[in-house]
Design brief:
Order of helices and strands: EHEHEHEHEEHEHEHEHE
Strand content: 15-25%
Radius of gyration: 20 Å
Helix content: 40-55%
Number of strands: 10
Oligomer: single chain
Distance between the termini: 17 Å
Shape: globular
């Protein structure tokens, strides 16, 4: 396997969105700690979408919205510096929408952090539209902070489908190294269960399992060579649902890292079914790395 340099995205700037919702606060705190670990400033953004209204808004309404947004980013900055006192923080209020504002602020090498649900969501909604849109369109990593804040588990989990996930694995390895955590690779695969009893398909099933194991072995070998001080474990499992296996494993992880699969068709889940599912149901923050 060719050796590729570790993506600078694991060390790049950190951008977090806030709208004053309950879901935004954990994202701000997570982003603050990550920015400090990278020795980077934290950039806090609020997208007001004033421009989306065209010229329909009177100046007084625009001023009220901008003042309210400034108050939100100022409060988020205080939350961040209360958590990390020496952290450098910048803020921005944008007239564009939340998705466009975050993508513009992050550029090509920034990591975007968002909460799992914003003000436009409701109690039964697992993930807001901004999180999905940003994860589908970002050029760099996107972290969706899910679940209640809890003590570190000391594990960074990464889902592996094939060798194209090496970038995601390396990103996870850098994060694990900084956190002094272990790295767990989980390669989960499935097939139609009734095919096990169909003799002509036995060889195909066996070959699929062997291919998964072989790809995982090559990836883990590369990572262990590149990160010799990192504790790395590897599991290749056949399950009814790869997404379900990752969601279950996320209960014991501090961060789940997955590769973002761009759509091959204009319909369906924009990030691939597994990535889409873990973004909605994982029990820890999820980092999506573009493939």
């Amino acid at each position: 396997m060719d050796t590729l340099p570790v993506s600078s995205s694991a060390d790049g700037p950190v951008v977090v969105g806030t709208d004053g919702s309950a879901g935004a606060a954990p994202a701000v705190l997570w982003a603050a700690e990550e920015a400090a670990a990278r020795h980077q400033p934290l950039h806090i953004v609020n997208g007001t979408n004033i421009d989306g209204w065209g010229g329909a808004m009177v100046p007084d309404a625009v001023r009220l919205i901008l003042d309210r947004a400034q108050g939100l980013v100022d409060e988020a900055a205080k939350q961040a510096t209360d958590r990390v006192p020496d952290l450098r923080v910048t803020t921005a209020v944008s007239r564009a929408g939340a998705t466009a504002s975050l993508l513009h602020a992050a550029g090509e090498d920034g990591t975007i952090v968002v909460g799992s649900r914003g003000l436009g969501g409701f109690s039964a909604l697992q993930l807001g539209s901004v999180g999905l849109k940003v994860a589908a369109r970002a050029q760099g990593p996107v972290v969706v902070v899910r679940g209640a804040e809890r003590p570190s588990t000391g594990v960074v989990l990464v889902g592996v489908q094939d060798e194209e996930d090496l970038v995601a694995v390396r990103f996870a390895a850098v994060i694990a190294g900084r956190r002094k955590a272990s790295l767990r690779l989980l390669s989960a695969w499935t097939f139609v269960q009734y095919l096990e009893s169909t003799v002509p398909m036995v060889r195909s099933v066996r070959e699929a399992a062997e291919a998964k194991a072989s790809a995982s072995t090559r990836i883990i070998g590369s990572v262990r060579e590149e990160f010799p001080d990192l504790k790395v474990t590897d599991d290749v499992v056949q399950v009814p649902s790869p997404a379900g296996a990752l969601v279950e494993a996320s209960a014991h992880a501090g961060l789940l890292v997955v590769g973002g699969h761009k759509p091959t068709r204009p319909v369906g889940a924009p990030l691939g079914r597994v990535t889409h599912a873990v973004l909605h149901h994982a029990q820890c923050p999820v980092a999506v790395i573009p493939r």
